[in-house]
Amino acid sequence: PLVVVESGGGSVQAGESLRLSCAASGNIDDNRLCMGWFRKAPGKEREGVAVMDTDGTTEYADSLKGRFTVSRDPAKDILYLTMNSLQPEDTALYYCGADTSCPSAKWAMLLGTFNFWGQGTQVTVSS
Question: Listing from the earlier edge strand, what are the strands of the sheet with 68-73?
């Protein structure tokens, strides 16, 4: 099993940036991890934000391309989510999923097919 812990959330003003971290630990072979960010706003369905597959292939939600970027520190098994030009509609609980493999980055984001999840980190953007 994997343990997943998110950090980096907070309250910011519109237009500002944040970087979230998702750290995975446990039984990880050769740093092979598929990890993804999702968000859930009050009254809305869960939304896939971005996924990075074991080979570095990334998939982003179309609406967030250009503002949100994922990167990975394989030495530390951490997936970062850099969020720029934040808007009030980005307010949500952001949480991370991880697994040792994914069907593909695209399907993992569409279906949220991760076996291990963190508790989430809150992002609040005020206007």
Answer: 2-7, 18-26, 78-83, 68-73
Q: How far apart are CA 31 and CA 49, in angstroms?
A: 22
What pLDDT was estimated at residue 31?
Answer: 73
End-to-end CA distance of the chain: 40
CA 95 to chain centre: 6
* Residue 46 to residue 57: CA distance in whole angstroms: 22
Low-confidence ranges of the chain (pLDDT < 70): none
C-alpha to C-alpha distance for 60 and 63, rounded to whole angstroms = 8
Tokens of 65: 């391309």
User: In the Cβ-directed half-sphere of 46, how many Cα atoms lie within 13 Å?
Assistant: 15
Backbone angles phi, psi at 22, to 5 degrees: -130, 110
In contact, 112 and 48? CB cutoff 8 Å: yes
Pairing state of beta strands 58-60 and 121-126?
A: unpaired
Determine the Cα–Cα distance for residues 21 and 114; give it in Å rounded to an integer: 17
| Residue reference for tokens 């953007």 | 125
